Amino acid sequence: RSFALLDQQEGVCVEDEEELCRLLSCHADVTTKVVSIFGNTGDGKSHTMNFTFFNGDPIFETSDKQDSCTAGAWAAFDPISRAIVVDTEGMQAVSPNEHSRLRLLLKVLAISDVVIYCSKAERLHQDMFVFLEDASASYCTYFAQEVARAAALCRSESTSSVGPHLIIHHETRNTQPLGEHSHRALVQRFRTDPSGAPSFPVAYSDVDYIGSKHGPKGSDFAPLQAAVRRALDKTSVRVHRAPAVVF
C-alpha cells in the first residue's frame, strides 16, 4: 500500500531516511528515480498510477465519490522500474488553502525526475498550460539550486539543475487526441518567451504527449508505460539516486 508523504499543510509525514526506506520496502542502498502525477480532481490520477506501475493493484486509493480521495501526496515503491511513485492531491478540488496546495504540488515536482500530467477531457484546457508554465518559473527560481546540490551528493556530472521530463497523458472519449504534430500544437498553447517565439517552459528537460481515445475495453495504459520507461532509462539529465538523497 501507499503511505502519506506530505500532508495538506505541506508537512513531511516521514521522520527520516530510515523510515522512508521502511515505508517504501526498499534497501537504503537502492538507487531510484521519482515519478509523480498531477491533474484535476476526478481525472483518474490514482487509477492511472495503479495501472501504469502496479498492474492495476489498488496501491493508491481510488473512489467513485464526488469528494477527492487523495489529500496531500502519497508514495509507493515500484521495484521493477526502481521508481518512487507519487500520487498528488487533485487541482480544482475544494481546498481550505489553494496557495498551500500549489506549494505542495511544486515541492513534489521539484523532487521528480518524471512528471505525468493527467487530463481526461475532450480538449486540453488552458489551466493545464498555465499550471505547467507557472511551475516551470517557480522551479527555476526556487528549486534549481537544490537539485544541483543533490547532484553533488550523487557525485554525478550527468545530473544537472534541469527539471523533470514531462509526459502529458491525454485521454478523450468523443474527440480525437492530438496527432503526429502534437508537439507543434502544444507549443502554440504556451505563452511566448521574451523573444516572442512560442516555446515549451524551460524547466522541463523533455516533453512527451501520449494521447488516446477511451475505447470499449477501457483505458490503454501501454503507451504511457512505454513513455515512462523511456524517460526513466535516460541518464543524460537525471541519474538514479539513493532514497536518502530524495529525502
Low-confidence stretches: none
**How many strands?**
7
Global geometry? globular
Q: Between the first and last Cα atoms, what is the distance in angstroms?
A: 19 Å
Main sheet strand line-up: 1-3-4-2-5-6-7
SS summary, helix count: 7
How are the secondary structure elements laid out?
Layout: E1 3-6, H1 17-24, E2 33-39, H2 45-53, E3 73-78, E4 83-88, H3 98-111, E5 114-120, H4 126-154, E6 165-172, H5 182-187, E7 206-213, H6 222-233, H7 243-246
Parallel strand pairs: 2-4, 2-5, 5-6, 6-7
Antiparallel strand pairs: 1-3, 3-4
Summarize it.
With 247 residues, the chain is of the alpha/beta class. It has helices spanning 17-24, 45-53, 98-111, 126-154, 182-187, 222-233, 243-246; strands at residues 3-6, 33-39, 73-78, 83-88, 114-120, 165-172, 206-213. Helix 3 packs across helix 4.
Explain this structure.
The protein is an alpha/beta fold. Helix content is 33%, strand content 19%. It has helices at 17-24, 45-53, 98-111, 126-154, 182-187, 222-233, 243-246, and strands spanning 3-6, 33-39, 73-78, 83-88, 114-120, 165-172, 206-213. A seven-stranded mixed sheet has the order 1-3-4-2-5-6-7, with helices on both faces. Strand 5 (114-120), helix 4 and strand 6 (165-172) form a beta-alpha-beta unit. Helix 3 (98-111) packs across helix 4 (126-154). The protein is globular, with a radius of gyration of 17 Å. The two termini are 19 Å apart. The model has no long low-confidence stretch (mean pLDDT 85).
Offer a few descriptive terms.
7 strands, 7-stranded mixed beta sheet, 247 residues, globular, 7 helices, alpha/beta
